[in-house]
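writing this on my phone so excuse typos. first protein, seq and then structure
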Amino acid sequence: MFLVATTVLALLSPRFTVEPEQGEPVKVSTYILEGGNHYQGQVISVEGERVRFRVPVEGGSYDEWRKLSNFIPHCAFRIKKKVSDDASAEAHLQLAKYATEKGLVYFAVRELEYAREIGADAAVTGELEALIERRGAGILAELFEAALTEGDVKRARKVLSDLMIKYPGTEVASGSGAMLERLEAAEEQAERQQLAQLEEERKAAEVKARERAIEPYKRLLSEARKHNRDGLLSSRSLSKGLGHFKASILRYERLIRGVDDKLAKSQDDAWMVESLSGLSKTASSELIGVLLNSGSMCLVRGQYTQALGYVNRILATDQGNRDALAMRARIEIAANQDGFGL
């Protein structure tokens, strides 16, 4: 279908001249245009913001020019890399700068590492690394604000955790304490709203007795959150940060065990079942977050086996957890790149 359509286009338009196929066939790659449509062709050259493609048609091929800005950032980066000199440190630095401008932080870091391996100037790479970190921190800060505005406190906490662990030395991260306070206030507000809704359904005489029954679990939840918070604030030190994360994990696990035991004895009390189930669900979800924080902290410091251990704890009970699966893939890639087989 693609060859038929492009053949008709080439024959009808005076801009195209179909050349008979000679030598090797056109090596087609697929790129995504802004708007979602797919484009297929072989990159021949890039001149400024213009890209020359070779497009196969029945009986040969034709060349056409496209604007680089027509493509989504990831594909525009791929196009530029197609014609880049892999042996040139300067070429990798230019790709890193382009990726940084487009918000493709992962690719920017990778190109910077390639440039360093080839022998790029340390002052230049150091300055670019700082720029990439600022850009990465800025993107995460924007995502945090968006999640908080939308009321998605779970997503906001994950994004903020990433910001504090990955970019602790940036100016944006220096304000993370205030961001944490805003997040905790939003979480507390959401919890208050949930409790207020439940409060209306309770009988006044039962409220105090029931709240006393679950107070120990709430206290454990509060302590677990505090240790997680302290771990994030101590992320410059692996031992200190992991120490707080481990204390948080122990409290979450103790809370979940206690709630499960209490639930088994409270099946006739609908309010108690609902409250305890909510606490258990919250603790289980937040426990995954702390395990991911622990794994991420180990990963960025090259402690791959330890990082994998935290991830596997999640997958042992939630085999399809996307965040854990994604982190395991990152750990394996990083370990292989550093020469460790996991």
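second protein below, same order as before
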Amino acid sequence: MPHPLDFKGGKNMNFCGYLIVRLKERFPMKNLFYCGVDRLPFWGEGDEDDESPILQKASNKYDENLFTPDESVEFINRYSAAIEILQLLDSMGRDYEIIKCRVDRNVILKEDSDTKKRLGIDIAYFGGDYFSMIYNSFCSETIDDSLQPFFKELNEYGLFNDMGTATRFFNQYNQLESSEEGDFCFYRIETPK
């Protein structure tokens, strides 16, 4: 499996934007929340509200403010647009939050002036359903023995604090016979202003 720094577009592509995701997911084995990208986007709930005018308005606002740096990744390009979408979803009683995501393919993690708090590093599909190696490795009651040491490395947000640990986890995960194959990349997760 190729390293996530070696796919489409080369090593120097960096971009960031906003995602609206469900509120934090709790890991079953520890009083720990997962705050990464693998939290179902608002348009995939499949409930009776999916055809509501409010959800349609939120979807339209999302489409109008879509930033697609690659055909697989769809970020909201402006924080103000993300706030408007979140307010529409809140009016429907849905529990979501905004996260700022930075895809760092060259591993240069610079702080931005518009970042409120850095939560950590996730390793997930490059777009699509944002399948996370981290979340899906640790969301069940049983964790592969070879990954157990990494569970202890997760921070309070269920993410890794540094690229070194994230890279070691990525390499170990890919040695598993049952590992998910896909186009993975490192996401730095932050809270916006």
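The CA atoms of residues 24 and 122 lie 14 Å apart. thats all i got for now
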